[in-house]
Amino acid sequence: MGLKFLFLFIIIFATCQNGISQKYLKGFVYEKIKEGEHTNFSPLPNATLIWKGSTKGTVSDENGKFKLMKPEGKDLYLVVSYIGYKTDTQRVAESVSELNIVLKESYELSEVEVKARRESEYTDKLNPVKTEVISSSGLQRLDVVIYQKVLRTVEQLTYLFLMQ
After folding, report:
1. Phi, psi of 99, deg, nearest 5
2. Pairwise CA distance, residues 57 & 2, whole Å
3. Whether this model's pTM surpasses 0.70
């Protein structure tokens, strides 16, 4: 009796595990590296994996490993992308629970040279800007002049206001 119960439990547990594993897709994202006659595969960390037509996805870890919950449906397409590599769209059958993906390089970047000039640091020799150095006593005189202008403006506004 106990042996039949154990056997039945193992069958039910195995069936449930198979059903649970079908709900997730796991695997690795690699790049193909050709060194002479040898071909190696190197993991791509932080590769983006998204189900086509949805916003559900994940990012591969530092070893290129990913685990992603499968959406409902039979026609599943997984879009895999990584900077500098061609985006790949893989059809995933309903029964597939593990998938290893190899991305191909899209192109090799050439050298980029950036030249820029900030206007604040550039003095045009043809159109120089006149500059003056103002001492602290000059600033004090400037303050007095500005203060006198403000007072005259306030007096004029007060006069206009009182005239109304």
Report:
1. -150, 130
2. 45
3. no
User: Letter for the amino acid at 4?
Assistant: K
CATH of the domain at 32: 2.60.40.1120
Q: Whole domain around residue 55: which residue ranges?
A: 22-103
Closest Cα partner for 20 from 79, 76, 73, 69? Answer: 69
Averaged pLDDT, 43-49: 95
Alpha helices in the chain (DSSP H): 2-22, 136-163
Tokens for 103? 């991305």
Tell me the C-alpha distance between 164 and 160, whole Å. Answer: 7
Phi, psi of 144 (to 5 degrees): -65, -45
| CA 9 – CA 3 distance, rounded (Å) | 10
CA 48 to centroid of chain Cα atoms: 10
**pLDDT tens across 82-140, in order?**
988 999 999 999 889 999 999 988 876 677 788 776 665 556 667 777 777 777 777 67
The token pair at 51 is: 């189900």
Whether residue 38 is contained in a domain is answered as yes
What local confidence, expressed as pLDDT, does residue 20 receive? 46
- Domain tally for the chain? 1
What is the pLDDT, as a whole number, of residue 21? 45
